[in-house]
């Protein structure tokens, strides 16, 4: 009894303590690839062990022992097994829940992650209820009934007692009724716990391709909004001062426009030139000073992004192989213009070549090829697709479904400083909004295709360029004939 109570108190204490620190710890976990891997391993180990225990004890061992061992031997074995089973289960389910929350900060939860957390929470509390309250009562009632059976000379048979006389014994019937009621609740709680685990298992078995199909820009905005809500209240002042002084790129120097753009004054002039003249066919900058000279893009990858190097390489290689641009990595001592990829707060970039070491942030939640490609394309000079001046011919903005204060993110760009590349509107572009982005309730669409309002919009996290994405970059940099 002491072991059971202590184990569950420790489990609940860990849950409460770590959950309260989850946002901060989650951020630190995302900064260390090895530590993150260790947490994932701990989660899979605790969850896998617990769901395996539940299946074995509930559906295999229990039935096998009931029809193999004598009645009282089975009962005594159960009285020793179940306290340990529920106590260990409480700890394992708690660890599984806490590690999942550490790996998935609450600010970034989507529908699937909410369902999984609910399933794990149900498993934790159903198991703790069984361990602390239900199991001791079931064991006490079972031993009371077995003692009475032994007094009457029963208990050495295998399986249920079939003696009609005993089944007519009023005292025994009352004992059996009390036992069955409490045992029924215990079984229901155990099945509820197992069902909660199955919910999590269901989502674990979904392929990475499903996550890769999420809209790129929708995911970027969700990450950036989560970082802005997180705030700085829980960060020590000295730590923040040192971070800012040592790394001037630690935070964008301006508010993010359209969810992921840190604009220079010249770029803001572009977005302020709203017009109904819709001769522009594509959203790219006309100012050649904002393009990379010689079609050569220089970039630097901060050491804290070492765990993202394979994905950064994938994004860069795709752009290099399918466009006329070349990419060269430099070190931090380089004095010219280059893109500085670092682990900041959120996913955002400058627009085009802005001079010097220009920021491109890849923080927690930005670990996708599509996100990296999206931000790099901003750095090349590509704007969001749905903001082109002629967009109303192709899509409809549902203004009433947009969050208050977010309608500015659906402005059309002016044509004064954009270039006409004579390319059609690209609904699948990696630079296009998701159809529910900035939705007032997260469900209502904010931008839909005219005539086909149900189709998905925008590129996916897997990072696939459309033909028009490729044509756009090649045309922007004056090499339309480039072979890819």
UniProtKB/TrEMBL annotation:
Keywords: Disulfide bond, Hydrolase, Membrane, Metal-binding, Metalloprotease, Protease, Transmembrane, Transmembrane helix, Zinc. Binds 1 zinc ion per subunit. SUPFAM superfamilies: Metalloproteases ('zincins'), catalytic domain. Its main location: membrane. Gene3D superfamilies: Collagenase (Catalytic Domain). Pfam families: Astacin (PF01400), DUF4149 (PF13664). Its EC number is 3.4.24.-. Disulfide bonds join 324-479. GO terms for molecular function: metalloendopeptidase activity; zinc ion binding. SMART domains: ZnMc. Residues 283-480 form the Peptidase M12A domain. The keyword Oxidoreductase does not apply. PROSITE patterns: ASTACIN (PS51864). It is found in: Membrane. The chain crosses the membrane at residues 42-63, 84-108, 114-133, 180-203. It is an enzyme of class 3 (hydrolase). Its cofactor is Zn(2+). The active site is at 375. This is Metalloendopeptidase.
